[in-house]
Amino acid sequence: LLTLAIETSCDDTCVAILEKHGPAARLLHDDKATSDSRKFRGIEPTVAVTGHTSKLAGLVDKALRMLPKVESNGSAGEGVLFLGSDGLRRKPDFISVTGGPGMTSALAVGLNTAKGLAVAWQVPLVIVHHMKAHALTPRLVHATGLPWPGESNQQQQQEKRKKEAAAHPAFPFLTLLVSGGHTQLVLSRSVTSHTMLAEAKNVAIGDMLDKCARAILPDDMLDQANSVMYAAELEPFAFPELQQQQQQQQGQANKNPYNYTPPRTRQDEIRPYSSPTHGWYLTPSLANRRDMAFDFSGLGGQVQAIARRSDSPPDTPPPDLTERRELAHHAMRLAFEHLASRVLLALDAMRAEKKRVPKTLVVSGGVAANGFLMHVLESMLKVRGYGNVEIVRPPAELCTDNAAMIAWAGMEMFESGELGEAGGEALEWLPRAKWPMEEEKSG
Ligand code: ATP
Ligand code: FE
């Protein structure tokens, strides 16, 4: 099976081609263009839509040239595309596209192009839920690690693949989705069945960290950032020694690179952090409460107020570099411990109800690219008796938005006999800015 996938829910214009054969998959193409909203210091919707509108057709055109060649010199029969001077190529069996959640006008650009391709090529259109695609990404990584039929198996390749294939999240698994627009803890039972266990109702963790980073990072760093994902700069900023160590040791494992001691009990977890030298403190989110929910608004507000001196006397000097690093470190730590605390509550509840505890915790979405987050999660699960739960995350480039994950989710849905979220009504699908994961199909 062959699919061409389009993703335009936010500010990345993404196109991918994925082929699947039995359990194995291979990514024939995975490309993106990101619009530049840096002068707005955050994603600007009109810039995103302009970016999609100007870039998507070109990206699709480029992708078509990566479709598998049809070797025969016969005529363009069924399942074959004729590409001008480029000869005959296999036509995708279906098109996958993000139907939501995301920015309405941004989603519309991808949807309209996908609908056009599906109609022109007379193939099905599969509407994909963006967050489900984030959740299923480790299964894509696993499938692309399996040997492709007939491919020569060089040893190095095999080694790499063995490692990737090991991390195969079989259903059911827990998924922690941490991105720019969502913070969700989900129990994934199948390709389409995902039960929400906890969710952030207000600001998402990625958004909160981006805002904190804008307040914490020195101006020159903000000016030099490669993208508006400012949160990605927080980790190297907070742990400069770690950067150096990693460069020097080149992969040698340091057991506790972040010098982090996980809270051993729930009581430890809900203690505020009090800065020994600067007098401010940070309160953990939903401290003393066991609600199955995430809340990053309080922590985000405190961090920004400290960095900007909003609640300090007017003559207070701005924070120096050491204080900024300390703030970045503990803002991340408290945010990540809050995430872990809800994972632990969910696991404890399953254990108490004598339900099977899932073997895997998938962590996906842009914030999953953060090494400190993975370290905090691993350490906390271990000291609290869940060391056997394997934490799996996709490689960093598949954590943030991409079309490969949309192709994979489309593929899993198509194979399971579901024509995506819209059933046979995909051509009428409208962008859905907000789209809960659990809702029954509306097609
Ligand atoms: P959603 O998936 O909820 O629709 P989105 O698609 O905009 O939102 P993603 O692309 O999945 O979100 O993730 C982007 C977010 O991840 C941004 O907030 C970005 O700053 C954050 N992010 C990326 N890399 C890192 C990192 N290394 N550490 C922390 N945060 C990061
Ligand atoms: Fe995303």
TrEMBL record:
Keywords: Acyltransferase, Metal-binding, Mitochondrion, Transferase, tRNA processing. The lineage of its organism: Eukaryota, Fungi, Dikarya, Ascomycota, Pezizomycotina. Residues 253-264 have a biased composition (Polar residues). This is N(6)-L-threonylcarbamoyladenine synthase. InterPro entries: ATPase_NBD, Gcp-like_dom, KAE1/TsaD, Peptidase_M22_CS, TsaD. The keyword Iron does not apply. It catalyses: L-threonylcarbamoyladenylate + adenosine(37) in tRNA = N(6)-L-threonylcarbamoyladenosine(37) in tRNA + AMP + H(+). Required for the formation of a threonylcarbamoyl group on adenosine at position 37 (t(6)A37) in mitochondrial tRNAs that read codons beginning with adenine. Probably involved in the transfer of the threonylcarbamoyl moiety of threonylcarbamoyl-AMP (TC-AMP) to the N6 group of A37. Involved in mitochondrial genome maintenance. It comes from Humicola insolens. Homodimer. Binds 1 divalent metal cation per subunit. The keyword tRNA processing applies. Pfam families: TsaD. It is found in: Mitochondrion. Its cofactor is a divalent metal cation. Coiled coil: none annotated. Residues 146-165, 242-273 are annotated as: Disordered. Its EC number is 2.3.1.234.
